[in-house]
Amino acid sequence: MAEAPAAPHRTTGSTLLHPLSALLGIPLDQINFVACQLFALLAAFWFRIYLGPSHASSAVRHAFATLFGIYFAVFCFGWYSIHLFVLVMMNYGIMNTASIPNIHRYSFVVAMGYLTLCHISRIYIFHYGILTTDFSGPLMIITQKITTLACQLHDGIGRQAEELTAEQNRLAVKTRPSLLEYLSYLLNFMSIIAGPCSNYKDYIAFIEGRHVHMKLLEVNWKQKGYDRLPDPSPTGAVMYKLCITLVSLVLFLTLTKNFPMAYIVDNEFLDKTPFLSRLGYLYVVTQAAKPKYYFAWTLAPCGIAQGTVKVLAETAGKHFLLSEEDSHAIVREPCC
Question: Which of 82, 101, 181, 333 is most buried, taking the most CB atoms under 10 A from its CB?
């Protein structure tokens, strides 16, 4: 029993919250993850109110989002966060030196290649022994953003408008981003830990304060009784997501803890349990593991919504700009 606290203390990131980890009996890396997500939610309130587009320049908003994102990465993953920064800087070099006809190809090969090497190192060097919330999650998100931006840059500069679909035309990027814009898009505190992935043009519109009006102009708001463009509040969307997060947390603390995944490789379980019972337990334990992902993928967009990258506009009755992938659909396959 004396060695029980050892597991919660195991982390490559900050040990500041180790007392809380030991008190709750939850691994420290998970405590750090949740702490960063909750702090991101609070920071997003402040970001929207005091560093809104009407109070601060785009450069200040970019810098704030980037610095906080870097801090969150270092806090959660320690020196492993270097992998994130290396990947970002390598692809920034590619974006500025590669020819437009090949920029999306080079970016894809480098980003996916680096991500693949990191996954291989986890399997064959660390034997999956790093952590449950390791750096590969943010690395996958950044890889998705890098390849998305590279393709949109290729569409915007290297192809004719007639060759593009309506969606490609809308998202096409006409100029190469500056270093600050690039870092802000990939490392901003609202999405660096658990995503979701946004489009570059939508993110820049959010930073510059054009995101709400862009979408509300598509709505016939004058017929709804408004004499000017309304400024919808994200509070309703945030509270709804937080309720789902709370339910997921309760399920995680009950179901997931009562049906440990490690039991399926226990020798006694394998030797003495009938095959159908083992198959049934495998299904149950897989379902019981899902609330952890529901929690992470629902909490992450709360900070984004509060920062108003995603806005619940009551005048339109729907979410705008960014909606996280349906987490239930993502984890529907029994491979969690």
Answer: 181
